[in-house]
Amino acid sequence: MSIIEVKKLKKEFKVKLKEKGFKGTIKSIIKPKYKKIKAVNDVSFSVEKGEMIAFIGPNGAGKSTTIKMLTGILHNDSGSIKVMDLDPKKDRKQLAYEIGCVFGQKEQLWTHLTPYDNFKFFGAVYDIPETVVEKKINELKELFELDSFIDTPVRNLSLGQRIRCEIVASLIHEPKILFLDEPTIGLDPVVKDNIRKLIKRMNKEYKTTIFLTSHDVSDIEKLCKRVIIINKGKVVLDDSMENLKYHYLNKKILDCKCKEEVNLSGEEGINIIKNKGVNLKIEVDTNKKSISDALKLLNPDNIIDINISNVPLEEIISNIYNDGE
Amino acid sequence: MEVRKEFKLMFTSAKYALMREMLNKVTFFSNIIFMILNNASFIIQWIILYSIKDNVGGYSFKMVMLLWALASFSFGISHFFFKRAYNLSNIIMNGSLDNYLVQPKNVLLSAISSDVDVSAIGDIIYGLIVYFVCGFSIDTFILFLIFGITSSLIITSIAVIVGSLSFWFTKSEGFADRMNNMITNFATYPEGIFRGVIKIILYTIIPLGVVSYIPIQVLTNFNLINFLIVIGSCILFIIFAFIIFNRGLKRYSSTNLMIARI
Amino acid sequence: MRKYFYIFKTELMSNLNYVFNVLFSFIGYFIHILVFFYLWSYIYSDSSQVINGYSKSQMIWYVIITEVIWSVLAGRSFCRKISEDVKSGNITYNLNKPYSYIGYLLSSKMGEMSISFVLYFIGAIILGLIFLGSLPSINIIQFIIVLLSCILACIISAFLIIIIGLFAFYIEDTGPFYWVYSKVILIFGTIFPIEFFPGILKNILSYSPIYVVSYGPAKLFVNFSYIESIKILIAQVIYIIITYLLCLLIYKKGEKRLNVNGG
User: Fold this and answer.
1) Chain C residues 153-212 with CB within 8 Å of chain B
2) Is C17 an interface residue toward A (CB < 8 Å)?
3) DSSP-derived pairing of the beta strands A78-83 and A2-17
4) Looking at residue C263, what is its pLDDT?
5) Which of A231, B102, C177, C207 has the smallest set of CB atoms within 10 Å of its CB?
């Protein structure tokens, strides 16, 4: 049974164009010019119960707009949305009891209060009886390892601790679906990893459906079984993580500084992007050559500095486009 | 049932915000005390005016004090419980409404009651002190409380209405501020000094008639019809505020004013 | 000197765009004047009556001028800005810049005020003419002296606000101090001339800052006298020096405190 059902979703924005300078300001007041932007253009997909789905795309691709429409913040121009058989446009309040939302860039917590007080407040928002809230807080405290700071005012917490509290706050009312909009934005890799683990554990424990947006591929690589990639308001790919990994996430970028020049041309699975003597940038196809083999070729003793990174999302998308043609 | 839950949440919000403000005791109490002094300083103004003339706009000194008591009390209630109503433009413009839209509660109520203004406690206390100094009786005190609530609801409604203009006009914040200040300005002067067009405006566009003048008349000389006029206008203003806000909210949801921020 | 001129100029330019905002805030000023116009019209039974040496038209012109000086100052946001600079530690960035923080504050404030001063003053004169029909008897030289006195009043007001804002070195919230200050100026300096207060209070007020930031220029405008004008200008210069030194003193003390506490 699908828990989210989206068909032919469309959303257009009118943007006022403003020319530079004082003249431009006057002009835009007297005769405003508008540009229409198709933020979401004919998007369809469905999500099954208990699924962890990643909704990714570069900045401005329409991720946030879509998530805002699914949660009832924005109204769609056309197409249909069913979230737990409810129409977010009409049944906003009813839907609110069933879903939880964490917007990475927007804080919902009261910063001067402790997480504990905050959770109790959200209990009141969702009309949960005191005793039930207490029990729930204890349970989530265990799961998200909040014990050491549950009585510390939120303003004194680190960013990672805060986001954990944000997530817990949105789980107080046991939502069936959790929307996470860029939950790991601005976090360092270790904290990111920790948050991902916790989200995964929570999904296992409560069978909560998770709808996650991100512009960071590694976020979802570790979390989700299914990926929807969106770009310029259109779905570019809707596939299993495994397929995506096999076809597009198999490449890593190695950027290294060596003591002596190394000649790698002609090696299978290695593509030289930049070669400026001791500064070398290569792309390694891990289906053909493992990272450790590549490192061996470079000779670990020869490496002064190295940086291994994923292929940027923009590049993956352009690859997908190219494959389609 | 629904309504009761909304109220419960409103009070929980106020309680939590108050807890936050009380973290710094010195700031908390100095805010309240200085606000009382602030209001009290106007007594000097009226002492001087009444030393020149023994009636100003048909009001005796005591009536002006009663006017001040009611204004201070009702402004205090409004600013304490609905601080954010005076900040609504900002809330709309910076996208904070999103947080309330994903909660199963009335968006307007959650938005405007999510913070408290501590100095407003000083207003409330000052209003009560001045009322008691002017003279206490059970029936006028009950009326005073009722009018305190109706006036605070009316000025809150006006703040919501002018604040909601930000749904349509991006630069209406200044106008909203002006309007709210204007009401404060007029509310502490006897209506009798105003004449002509201004007087008409004060009973219509800036509805101080039902916020201050009629309640003072009823307080000094009870009149059922005037009493009902105040209650009725209060209800109308509340309904109007909800209608305007909800219209705007629909627009917010269908256009996303904050496209620039995506 | 040049760098202060540049700070002044940048602030002025960026504020040109806010001309509309100034016009908008003028509505608030207009409302104040309107209320006082009606109030004094009620209290003066006829236009020939004189109360404490002021005719009705002089009384209303007095309020028109004092309110201009006060409105142009926009003290609340200025005070808040300074306090926030102090509390957030922004002020420490200014410590090692090649200009004095006080000089920076004053020149940027003056840039901001010049536009609103010009607009307010023109608007105020028009408003007064509409309400009262004629200007007080004043010739062009006298008018220029009044303007000069108004500008000096603005500078002293700005220094006084800076002093209050810098209290943030010592207390968490300077807001309440600002309220009290604004109420003192309003009651004792803006709505009534000093002559309206009883004996001792009158004497105290004529030595207080109120004499130089509101009473002086407004009194000159409604009832000019050369002797009075020299007295007021000298008092203003003395007050500028005193308030400036006070700003410096508080700033230096606060700066030391910051260094001790490590910001």
Assistant:
1) 171-173, 175-177, 179-180, 183-184, 186-187, 191-192, 196-197
2) yes
3) antiparallel
4) 42
5) C207
Taking the CA of residue C192 and the nearest CA in chain B, the distance in Å comes to: 8
pLDDT digits (tens, 9 = 90+) for A44-66: 999 988 888 888 887 778 888 88
Q: Decide if C196 and B56 are in contact by the 8 Å CB cutoff.
A: no
pLDDT tens-digit map of C132-148: 888 888 899 999 999 99
Number of structural domains found in chain C: 1
Of B38, B44, B189, the CB nearest to C180: B38
Sign of torsion over alpha carbons A116, A120, A125, A128: positive
Chains in contact with B, where contact means 3 or more Cβ–Cβ distances below 8 Å, are A, C
Domains in chain A: boundaries: 2-12+43-108+170-246, 250-324
* Distance in Å, alpha carbon of B9 to nearest chain A alpha carbon: 6
Q: How confident is the model at residue A155 (pLDDT cuts 50, 70, 90)?
A: confident
Rounded to 5°, the CA angle B121-B127-B128 comes to 95
pLDDT at B141: 95
Residue B262 is predicted with a pLDDT of 32
Yes or no: say if B58 and B130 are a contact pair by the CB < 8 Å rule. no
Across C1-24, average pLDDT: 70
Residues of chain B neighbouring C24 (CB-CB closer than 8 A): 174-175, 178
Measured over the CA atoms of residue B52, residue B58, residue B62 and residue B68, the dihedral's sign is negative
For this complex, say whether ipTM is above 0.90: no
Inter-chain contact A121–B16, Cβ cutoff 8 Å?
yes
Q: Is A155 on the interface with B (CB under 8 A)?
A: no
Does residue A25 sit at the C interface (CB-CB below 8 Å)?
A: yes
Q: Does A116 touch chain B (CB under 8 A)?
A: no
Which 8-state DSSP code applies to residue C223? S
Lowest mean pLDDT among A86-95, A100-109, A126-135, C113-122: A100-109
pLDDT value at residue B228: 96
The boundaries of the domain holding residue C81 are 2-261
Q: What is the pLDDT of residues A227-255, one digit of tens each?
A: 888 888 888 888 887 787 777 777 888 88
Q: What is the nearest CA distance from B76 to chain A, expressed in angstroms?
A: 23
Indicate the pLDDT class of residue B260, thresholds 50, 70 and 90: very low
Q: Is B68 exposed, middle or buried (0-12, 13-18, 19+ CB in 10 A)?
A: buried
Q: List b or e across C176-215, with b for residues whose CB sees 16 or more CB atoms inside 10 angstroms.
A: bbbbebbbbbbbbbbbbbbebbeeeeeeebbebbbbbbbb
A185 touches chain B (CB under 8 A): no
Phi and psi at residue C191, in whole multiples of 5°?
A: -90, -25
* Whole-number pLDDT of residue A18: 62
B155, B207 contact by CB (below 8 A): no
Tell me the chain B residues in contact with residue A97 when contact means C-beta distances shorter than 8 Å: 104
C-alpha–C-alpha distance, residues C22 and C19, integer Å:
5
C19 touches chain B (CB under 8 A): no
State the fold for domain A250-324: Alpha-Beta Plaits (3.30.70)
- DSSP code at position A255: E
For A180-194, what is each residue's pLDDT tens digit?
888 877 778 788 888
The C-alpha atoms of residue A276 and residue A257 are separated, in whole angstroms, by 10
Contacts of C16 in chain A (CB under 8 A): 22
Residues of chain B in contact with residue C192, where contact means CB-CB under 8 angstroms, are 45, 48
Strand-pair partners of A41: A10
- CATH H-level, domain A2-12+43-108+170-246: superfamily: P-loop containing nucleotide triphosphate hydrolases (3.40.50.300)
State the Cα–Cα distance between residues B91 and A138, nearest whole angstrom: 33
Structure tokens at C88: 């957030």
Are A113 and B8 inside 8 Å of each other by CB? no
Chains touching C by CB (3 or more pairs below 8 Å): A, B
